[in-house]
Structure formats: C-alpha cells, structure tokens
Design goal:
Blueprint lengths: L2 H19 L1 H15 L19 H25 L14 H7 L4 H7 L8 H27 L4 H31 L3 H32 L8 H16 L11 H22 L1
Helix pairs in contact: 1-6, 2-3, 3-7, 6-7, 6-8, 7-8, 8-9
Organism: Aliikangiella maris
InterPro entries: Ferritin-like_SF (IPR009078)
Protein name: Ferritin-like domain-containing protein
Length: about 280
Amino acid sequence: MKLVEKFLKKAVEHYYTQVVACPESRVWYHNLYQQLESGGEVPDLDTCRGKLNDEWIEPLFDKHQDDENRHADMWLTLLKKRNAYRPEDIPQWANTVAAFCNRGWLATVDKLSKDKPIHQSELITMFAGIHALENLAIGRFQLMSDLHREIDPEISELLDVVIRDEKFHQAYTREAVLRLGKRHNCLAFAEQCLEEGVVAYQKYALSLMPNYVDYLGKKGKGANFSTWFLILNQLLKVYKFFKPQLTEPPKPPKHIAKSIEKVEQEYAGNLRLQSA
C-alpha cells in the first residue's frame, strides 16, 4: 500500500473512532445510515421481473431491493425504540447516494422507478454505480461495526447483517455488469465503468470529509478530532475546491448510445401521440 493510501486509511480510522466515541455523533450516523438505506440505490418497484429482460439478474435485483428496504426498517425500528430517530438532523449534502444518482451513475434507477422504458445496456452504468456504493460501504460499515462491538453490540449486530447483504450486492452487481458488457459487445466499456465508478465514489467521499468534520464538530455533535487530523481536513478543503464535483460515468460506445437514443425517441414519440 502506498504511503498516501496508508495515511488516508489511518485518517479514516481516526475519524470513525472519534465519531463512535461521542454518543451524539454516533446517533447522528445511525440516522444517516437509515436515510441512505431508505432510498435512491434501488428503484421504487414491487418487482423488476419482466423489466430487465434477464432472468438471472431480475430475481437478484428483487432480492437487493428487499434487502435495502429491510435494512431501512431495521434502522428505523431500532432508532424509534431508542427514541433517537431524528431524520431532520441529516442535511441534504450527506446523501451521497442521491448525489451519485444526480451525476448520472444511477439515472436508470430513476427511469425504472418512473416506469420509463430503457435499453438493457443502460443497466451497465447503473450496476457499476451500485457496485461502487457497495464497495465503499462494506469497508466503512465493517469499521463501524468493529468500533461498536463493545460499547453498543446491538448496533454492531445490525451492521453485521447489513454487511453480509452488501457483500452479496457487491458480487452480483459486478457479475451483472460483465454479463451485460459481453452481451452488448462492450466489455471494455463495462470494465471501465466498474473501475471508474469505484474511484469516482471514493474520491467523492473523500472530498466530503470536511463537511462531516465541520458538521459533527460544530453542530453540537461533540466529535473530538486530533490536531493532525484537523490539519488534514483543511487540506481536504483545498482538494474539494479543485475537485468539487462527482465524476460522471464514462460515455458509452457509439452503438450503445444509438440504441439508448432510439428507445428514448420512441418513448417521446408515444407521449406526443397520447397527448395529441
């Protein structure tokens, strides 16, 4: 591991250690996780059967949707039992899943939720985006679970359940991207989406660190960060100034772009006929 990567890993560990050490910031994170699980990553559908034209992917994606809903309910039940459910405490910028969607990685999730037609190749970027979310989440959730294990085993047990599901999500979404890339003669594009999605989300999460540090340190959440970490936080603010935006997904190959455009044009034409 490179020196910079080791230092950033140490910084992330320090950040979460201090978050968990403070009851106020700890509960804030529990509410954040409930919000992240409750929307954006998967479409708002009862089932995807018959919508993706792939009998292998569809039941897995249905299970994924069920898992995310179950995770959100688990957090909600626990927080309400503790009288600690405070969704109003979570600012909009903290919803990194929504930001990922707005940047184009999960745009197909929105299309599916609105029952808009898609070309199957659009699932490549979507599943690569979901894979990136799961990839980072597994590491962060594992760290949080380990830090909670002695002081709040109930939270640790909940996170362990989530981690097991997220590992499944991480694995099947990668396979789905490669499967679709081969089917639509764009395997190189599919592999590029997987690689760039992970990097884009990791860099975006890093650029947001100052937001979390300032919020948890100045909004009465009580997190107490070390001096060296606060200096790093100032450097990350400079990084964020020059890299403020989440990277967009790669452009699809021309034959894929044309297929997607054709579906969109047909849909727009049908809407015009219906309104005439």
